[in-house]
Amino acid sequence: MNWLFLVLAGLLEVGWAVGLKYTEGFTRPLPSVLTVIAMVVGFYLLSLSMREIPLGTAYGIWVGIGAAGAAIAGMVLFKEPVSTLRIASIVLVVAGIVGLKLSSAS
Fold first, then answer.
1. What family is this protein classified in (predicted)?
2. Does residue 106 contact residue 80 with C-beta atoms inside 8 Å?
């Protein structure tokens, strides 16, 4: 269950990162409220996952999911540049996430 909490927390990190773009500096009420909710729930789920998953593993995976997901979302939603180097970098982040999971005792 802790790993599920961690993955959901990572996905919510992607959600609030994308949401920040839509808030336009927290000037738009609905995107601002949804972004803050995603932040709070994501942090809560991260904290639950850390009951059993080591800090370095949990935080590294959470940040990795957020970074890779935000980069992909930026390319898809905001037409940010897509390049071989960018895709390769995302693959390396995902490889790091898998490595942290495989090396975890939990």
1. Belongs to the drug/metabolite transporter (DMT) superfamily. Small multidrug resistance (SMR) (TC 2.A.7.1) family. Gdx/SugE subfamily.
2. no
For residue 64, give Cα distances in angstroms to 9, 26, 27, 100.
11, 25, 28, 10
The model's confidence at residue 104, banded by pLDDT at 50, 70 and 90, is confident
Give residue-wise pLDDT tens across range 65-75.
999 999 999 99
Backbone CA torsion sign across 14, 17, 83, 101: negative
- 8 Å CB contact between 7 and 54: no
**Per-residue pLDDT at 24 exceeds 90:** yes
C-alpha distance across the termini of the chain, in Å: 11
pTM: 0.90
Q: Are 96 and 59 in contact (CB under 8 A)?
A: no
Which own/partner pairs from 29-32 qualify as long-range (CB within 8 Å, at least 24 positions apart)? none
